[in-house]
């Protein structure tokens, strides 16, 4: 079992009880120095005072500490972790005024402690978090000429706010802009620091802000808070659970290759990390069909496909992938605004002889392996680092898969009987597949990061890879091979595992 490093729990969190006051807007001339970047020069800077129920300090939660370590590995390009959302407010219901939307934002910050929490130095060398009871949230109002232009302008504002890293110790972890036509707000633009929220938490905030704007209330407050969670995790019972999780990691590390990408395949490009993205209606249908046929989740189908293709491309018989796990199974955590996500370790044995094994034969075992990974995705990152260092010293080299998987869909939509497609229909749907390279990065702390989202009736699969290990042609081939693998399986023709290297080669030759 891994050695664990105990982070002292915040057993005496100071709490200041106050009576919440009505939030008020403040003139642009009072914007403080920690306001963060302005989205557009034409915006008018205003803001809102907030007054929450308590203040306090605690260590970072495990999820926060995991993101903090990732930020350290990615800086100064850590704006990569910013989370952006656009909330349309002109689509239905009564019009939202600038004053009304700003008051709702103040209520949102009062409701969720994460939004008024910043980084603080820790006495043991590890960073902590400090919660403020009162403060001022800057808001920028960006005028649009008309409603037709407002949506485009909101996206421009979002891109601008996302492009700058947060000042974790001085800036509030929420940047806000309101796009307006006259005094009517058409869109609220939110950019979140990943230390304060993960993808699920961002959706909670969008939901609550909509309710606060429309109804003036978002219902019952969250059942717990990041400070409470930090005390629980760093207490004795939490550290025991974390040690059990790390025992799974150690066993998985010992059963897997030291890394999934051992040797560079090409000279790295500049920028070094490229993102390829495939948008495929056929893949959306095929994933749902394979999942329903084999009684597993669609996420398992995609995870198994990515693992099998990486292993085939790199010549491994065991695949190790780190899925991002939401950790929201406990009822008290489902509406908690914080970052709960942590890496899991998914280990899939492809077998010594794959000559007679089809891809879909992997799915029952992959489902069980995924469940084990999800259960072992809550642990102290300091202890996780200690485990990695102990194995590095034992093996004489680093042990890390450098292979990540992130299914960012909040809900999977089961396939309906009427939606089952014939092989011919799946082939026809592939004519609408689109591919591109939408982004590059100078630095990402991984070699293979797969992200799953939805775009209309299609699945969007984005692969960000280190071009020294996965050149752009290999990124494209991997994504088209994934589509072929799953669509063929849905059509009743699951490829043999022994055929996957050839499938990758063919995808590289035949893709547009």
Highlighted features:
alpha+beta, seven-stranded mixed β-sheet, disordered N terminus, Chloramphenicol Acetyltransferase, 13 helices, 2 domains, 512 residues, single chain
Break the fold down into its secondary structure elements and pairings.
Layout: E1 25-26, E2 44-51, E3 56-59, H1 62-74, E4 83-88, E5 96-97, H2 98-111, E6 117-120, E7 128-131, E8 134-143, H3 147-162, E9 174-181, E10 184-192, H4 199-215, H5 226-233, H6 236-255, E11 273-280, H7 281-294, H8 298-314, E12 318-325, E13 342-343, E14 346-349, H9 363-375, H10 381-395, E15 404-407, H11 423-429, E16 434-441, E17 448-455, E18 458-466, H12 472-490, H13 500-510
Parallel strand pairs: 8-9, 12-15, 15-17
Antiparallel strand pairs: 1-2, 2-8, 3-7, 4-10, 5-10, 6-7, 9-10, 11-16, 11-18, 12-13, 12-14, 17-18
CATH class of the largest domain, anyone? Alpha Beta
Full CATH superfamily name of the largest domain: Nonribosomal peptide synthetase, condensation domain
* Cα shape: globular
Label the CATH architecture of the largest domain: 2-Layer Sandwich
**How many structural domains can be distinguished in the coordinates?**
2
Class by SSE composition: alpha+beta
Overall average residue pLDDT: 89
Which topology of the largest domain does CATH recognise? Chloramphenicol Acetyltransferase
Distance between the termini: 49 Å
Q: How many beta strands in the DSSP annotation?
A: 18
Low-confidence stretches: 1-34
């Amino acid at each position: 079992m891994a050695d664990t490093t105990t982070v002292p729990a915040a057993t005496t969190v100071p709490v200041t009880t106050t009576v919440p006051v009505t939030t008020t807007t403040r003139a642009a001339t009072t914007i403080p120095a920690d306001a963060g970047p302005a989205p557009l020069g034409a915006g008018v800077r205003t803001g809102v005072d907030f007054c929450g129920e308590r203040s306090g300090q605690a260590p970072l939660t495990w999820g926060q500490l995991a993101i903090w370590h990732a930020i350290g590995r990615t800086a100064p390009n850590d704006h990569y972790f910013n989370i952006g959302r656009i909330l349309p407010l002109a689509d239905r219901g009564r019009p939202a005024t600038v004053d009304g939307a700003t008051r709702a934002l103040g209520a949102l910050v009062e409701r969720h402690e994460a939004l008024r929490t910043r980084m603080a130095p820790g006495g043991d060398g590890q960073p902590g978090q400090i919660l403020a009871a009162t403060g001022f949230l800057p808001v920028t109002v960006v005028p649009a000429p008309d409603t037709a232009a407002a949506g485009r302008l909101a996206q421009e504002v979002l891109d601008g706010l996302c492009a700058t890293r947060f000042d974790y110790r001085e800036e509030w972890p929420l940047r806000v802009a309101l796009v307006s036509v006259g005094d009517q707000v058409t869109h609220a633009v939110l950019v979140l620091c990943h230390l304060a929220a993960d993808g699920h938490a961002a959706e909670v905030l969008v939901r609550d802000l909509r309710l606060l704007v429309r109804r003036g209330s978002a219902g019952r407050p969250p059942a717990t808070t990041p400070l409470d969670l930090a005390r629980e995790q760093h207490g004795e019972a939490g550290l025991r659970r974390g040690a059990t999780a790390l025992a799974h990691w150690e066993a998985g590390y010992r059963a897997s290759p030291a890394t999934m990408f051992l040797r560079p395949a090409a000279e790295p490009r500049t920028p070094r990390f490229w993102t390829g993205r495939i948008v495929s209606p056929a893949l959306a249908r095929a994933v749902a069909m394979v999942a329903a046929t084999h009684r597993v989740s669609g996420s398992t189908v995609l995870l198994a496909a990515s693992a099998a293709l990486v292993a085939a491309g790199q010549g491994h018989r065991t695949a190790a992938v780190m899925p991002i796990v939401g950790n929201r199974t406990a009822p008290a955590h489902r509406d908690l605004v914080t970052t709960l996500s942590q890496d899991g370790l998914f280990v899939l044995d492809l077998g010594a002889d794959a000559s007679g094994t089809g891809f879909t034969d992997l799915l029952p075992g992959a489902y069980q392996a995924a469940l084990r990974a999800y259960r072992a995705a809550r642990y102290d990152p300091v202890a996780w680092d200690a485990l990695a260092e102990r194995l590095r010293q034992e093996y004489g080299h680093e042990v890390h898969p450098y292979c990540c998987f992130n299914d960012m869909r909040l809900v999977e939509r089961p396939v309906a009987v009427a939606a089952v497609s014939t092989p011919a229909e799946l082939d026809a749907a592939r004519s609408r597949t689109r591919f591109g390279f939408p982004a590059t990065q100078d630095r990402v702390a991984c070699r293979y990061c797969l992200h799953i989202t939805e775009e209309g009736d299609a699945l969007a699969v984005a692969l960000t890879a280190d071009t020294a290990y996965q050149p752009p042609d290999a990124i494209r081939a991997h994504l088209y091979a994934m589509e072929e693998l799953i669509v063929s399986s849905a059509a009743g023709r699951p490829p043999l595992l022994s055929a996957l290297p050839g499938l990758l080669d063919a995808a590289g030759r035949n893709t547009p």
